[in-house]
Structures are given as structure tokens and as C-alpha cells.
Amino acid sequence: MNIKQIQSMSQVDSADWNQLAGKDYPFIRHEFLLALEQSGSVCKQTGWKPAHLLVFDEDILIAFMPLYLKEHSWGEYIFDHQWAQAYQQHGLNYYPKWLTAIPLTPCQGTRIVIRDQIDSFTIMQLLLTFIKKISEEQNISSWHCLFPTLPQVKLLKSLQLSIREGVQFQWFNKDYQSFDDYLLALSSSKRKMIKRERKRILEQGIELQCIAGPQISSQQWQIFYNFYSMTYLKKGSQPYLNLAFFEQIAANMGEQLLLVFAIKDDNPVAAALSFVGADTLYGRYWGCYDEYHSLHFETCYYQGIDYCIQKGLNRFDSGAQGEHKIARGFEPVTTYSAHWLRDSRFAKAVEHYKERATSYLPFKQVD
Predict the structure, then answer these.
(1) Distance between alpha carbon 27 and the CA centroid of its chain, in Å?
(2) How far apart are CA 300 and CA 282, in angstroms?
């Protein structure tokens, strides 16, 4: 087995990559990662320099791992700014650092993709040894793996990486036959609250329109992007993604996209874009011009729940944050990240801090 490091998704055959990636988890697909790069949303200039690792057995691709050289910690949703500050206070550089993650995407999924019947421990050990070697050679402080699946978390922990835990809120389909069937599973107060919020939408004269990816027009993509950009501009920042990214994924993986428009007086007033996996709906981007009562809940949550019930999807991952989701039927789910710091002193300090922090979480620790 040998490892090859590439600087762009264009340097690996899309068919070989996708044969391993599959379609279950859309964000690991070649089309998605390539669109991030070719649109300029992810590049050296934005602080996300691609450095993906490929593992070959002779000429056959048997594993891969997305990898980026990061010059900052923005767009990761796992926060390590305090670590960077600690390095700076001691006269050391925390950046650049290695990052294995899906850029700008806080959704759990496989991070090291390995061909069936290949020993996962051997592959991960090989990759970690390679990362440690090039970190020494290039003076790179650390490697971080964000939002891996639980089996891969256990694998990374067995290799002595530090594991951090977080919380997200996700919805699970318990064989509901309709949205009303789902409401019956809730307490009376929560059921009344959701019905009242959905009624508010009708009272404001707002209708919801769900559009499958292949049916989304160029004009509709432009309207959606305007809404998406507004989410950032309202906070005084620039959007992470550009219109070219959305146009490229629409052209190359449109079958895994779902766009929800909120319409009032024949004009869109809000929009939300989701990705469709094998058994999961991933709610990703949203925006609106003006605020309407309960519009965010309806567009981003209730439409997604309704879609999962109609299509028989098992789970709705609506993204990071949002304790308010609990009242709307979402459940807390433990998320993970794995970390290796080249400086052993800081590694010990981080492990000590992590142990203190996780002692307050009401979840079982990874065995």
C-alpha cells in the first residue's frame, strides 16, 4: 500500500472516488468536494488548501481521506480558538493545521472511506503515520478530524487521539404515516404549539413549495442564493459559498437536492436548501429578506419532517446548534471530533481540559 497526496479533487478519477464514497452521504461525493474547489469557495485564498490523501494497493484506490491545510478555524463548527490563543501566548504557531472535515458542513459522516474487506485499523494507522511525518517536515501543529461516525471515533481513539464531544439535535422517523401521526407522539402542549405555528403561516398568506433539484430553474437558484447571502449580510459578514458552487452541484448532483420556497403574494420570501441521503435529509442553508412569525420553523423544520415522512427517510439532520429544536420533536445526539497535537505539552493540557469539560455532559463516554 502507498499514499498519494493531491492538491485538488480534479487529480483523482471521479468514478474511482465515488465507487468508494457511494451516495448515502452526499457531502463526501466527488461532485460536492470538487464544486467547493472549482467555485473558489474552498482554496488557499479562503484558508482551505486541499491536500487530500489517497491510499492505493498497486493501482487500485482502496481508501481516501479529505484533508485541508487550514490557516484559521472559521467554518468548522468545532471551536478551537482557545487552543490557538494558548499557542500564541507561548510564542508558538497553531496555524497552519491539518483538518479532515467536510468544509463548512457540520454533518456527521464517514471521514476515512475504506474499501470493503480492507482492515480499517491498518489504513488509519498508515494515514496517521503519514500525517505525523509530514507535520514534522512542514512544521504543522496538529491534525483534527471533525464529525466522524461513532465507529471511526472508536478507531481514532484506539490510536491514542484525543476525542471531544458535542451535541446536535436531530429528528428521527418512528414509522410515522403522516405529519398528524407524528404530532400525536408529542405532548399536548408541544402538539398545540406546532399546530399554532403552522396556522400562523397560513394566516400570513404564506404557502410552501418543495422543488426537487432537477426541477430548480436558474432563476430560482439566483433567488435562493440571494436569500442565503442575506443570512450572512445581516450579521455583517460575507457568505462562505458563492453562486457558482450552487450552480455546479445543481448540474452534477441535482437528484440529491431539495429546495423549499416560502411564497407570499406570488413572490418568494424565504428559502431553505437540503441534501437527500440514502436514509437522511440534511438541512443545510436558509435565508429570508423579512421576518415572519414562525417562518423559520416551518421552512427549515416542519417541511423537512414532512418530507422525511412522505419519503420514508429515517432521520432529519438540520445542522448545528438550536436547543429550541427539542420542543419541536428533535432529540439530542452526541457528535465527536478527534485531535492530535504535535507538541506533547499542549496535547496533555488539552486532554486535561477536555476531561474536565466532558464531565459535565450527560452522555456516555466513548469506550
Answers:
(1) 7
(2) 10
pLDDT over 90 percentage in the chain: 89
Dump pLDDT digits (tens) for 121-173: 999 999 999 999 999 999 999 999 999 999 999 999 999 999 999 999 999 99
Asked if the peptide bond before residue 214 counts as cis, ω within 30 degrees of 0, the response is no
Bridge partner list, 3: 55
List domains and CATH numbers for the chain. Answer: 2-166+336-358 (3.40.630.30), 174-313 (3.40.630.30)
Q: Tell me the average pLDDT across 265-284.
A: 97
CA 31 centroid distance within chain: 15
User: What average pLDDT does this structure show over 20-42?
Assistant: 97
Instruction: Please name the residues in contact with 260: beta carbons below 8 A apart, sequence gap of 6 or more.
Output: 208, 209, 210, 211, 271, 272, 273, 274, 299, 303, 304
The residues near 187 (Cβ < 8 Å, ≥ 6 apart) are none
Question: Cβ contacts of residue 70 below 8 Å, gap of 6+?
Answer: 47, 48, 49, 76, 95, 96, 97, 98, 99
DSSP string spanning 241-306?
A: S-HHHHHHHHHHHGGGEEEEEEEETTEEEEEEEEEE-SSEEEEEEEEESS--TTHHHIIIIIHHHH
Please name the residues in contact with 63: beta carbons below 8 A apart, sequence gap of 6 or more.
Answer: 20, 54, 55, 112, 113, 114, 115, 118, 123, 127
Task: Specify the pLDDT at position 222.
Answer: 97
Alpha-carbon distance values, 295 to 48, 162, 291 (Å):
34, 40, 7
pLDDT of 35 over the 90 cut? yes
Contact 343, 132 (CB under 8 A): no
Contact 211, 303 (CB under 8 A): no
Beta strands 2-5; 60-65: pairing state: unpaired
